[in-house]
Task: structure prediction
Amino acid sequence: MDAALKHLERNHDRFLNLLLDYLKIPSISAQRKHDADSRRAAEFIRARLDEAGFETGFFEGKGLPTVHGARLVDTKKPTLVVYGHYDVQPPDPLDLWESPPFEPVIEDGEIRARGCADDKGPSLALVLAAACWGKDLPMNLRFVIEGEEESGGTVVYDYLKVHRRDLADAKAVAIADAPGIARGVPALCYGLRGIAAVEVTVKGPARDLHSGTYGGSVANPATALARLLATLHDAKGCVAVQGFHEGARPIDDVERKRLSKLPFDERAFLADTGSPALVGEEGFTTWERRTARPTVEINGIFGGYEGEGSKTIIPSRATAKLTCRLVPGQDPKRVQDAVARHLESHAPKGVRLEIARGHTAPAAYMDPETPWAKAARAALERAYGCPAALTREGGSIPVVSAFREAGLEPLLLGTYAPGEKAHSPNERYHVEDFLACIRAGIHFFGAPPA
Ligand code: BES
Ligand code: MN
Ligand code: MN
Result:
């Protein structure tokens, strides 16, 4: 252990520079024009695994490769899988960045770049933790680092199917892709929400029409879409789609109490959002609303003229991109069906709807008291100098349920500060958290459960 930690001490600067180089690669999996960049990111992380003594490969499929690496030191020792993603969200809107998203800078102890916290920093940290152990690595490790987490890709699922037997020796999968609970306070996150994407297009006239000549005589698709979307919630902020909540597990009293005791700084949370106030479903706390209740969100809404000045038209169509966040018990496909039925049955007169179903993933809920979970918590505590909080989070990591089906227990390590602006302009990551995450990996890999 000491030797591995010493190795980290001696390599701070080199490790940090590696992360900065990694962050320079715009591996935006949602955009085909960045495929070559994504592949460079895959090669970059593979090279780090190579350097750490792993036997590595690319798993190719319909999309971007999944990088895998194995270091099997002793079949009698336990095996841990480590998952992460090398892709990042698009950096748009670009004009809101204080420094360019793929030209990382360090200011006030924070790295600024797209993907620094989500997830290049934490996932690289665990690779480097393995490197710190050198030839003395105390357990078997298998890394799986995919390139389509942020865009609903499926290559990693095929990897898990094809390589199921390779993973059979592992009981758990560590994932450093979540925030802690406060600055310097890590978390073991035992719940994630699932997701179900739906896109709806409202179609009206065959072309954009003069709004003077035709206005008042045909349905306006943008107005129709606005009315339609307004029916998704009731006055209490609850999703008003019939069948949407089917199977959704309520929050029980034990958990309510547990969540209410989290050291959650609601004022800081509000300040971070920049919103005038926190609002949401009646009868639930902010933490419950954002992690343990299902939602429907409009991610994008467009149609008609968006250019400079004014243009007097009735647009021929308008579109909204929706995603639902799901809690344990909800079936993502059934939720998509329920939303589609709701939209169809609430469509205003005079328009036609086109509905497309997007990616889905169920929610995840884990037991934070298993031997592996306790080992992960102990490692976080040693690395950060304080106990890891037990949290539920509202985001989704689609592959988590596939790992579970493959018999692996997901261990979601919350290693960075809340409010690092993942998916937003000016994403950041504290250098200290990068180093702490490497330390957490060193401790975890050094002390598997008995
Ligand atoms: N790391 C996040 C998931 C996450 C967010 C976990 C917050 C814990 C707290 C992940 O990279 C992510 O953003 N996932 C997407 C998945 C989607 C594109 C299918 C998400 O949640 O939007
Ligand atoms: Mn992530
Ligand atoms: Mn993300």
Q: What stands out?
A: The mean pLDDT is 97.
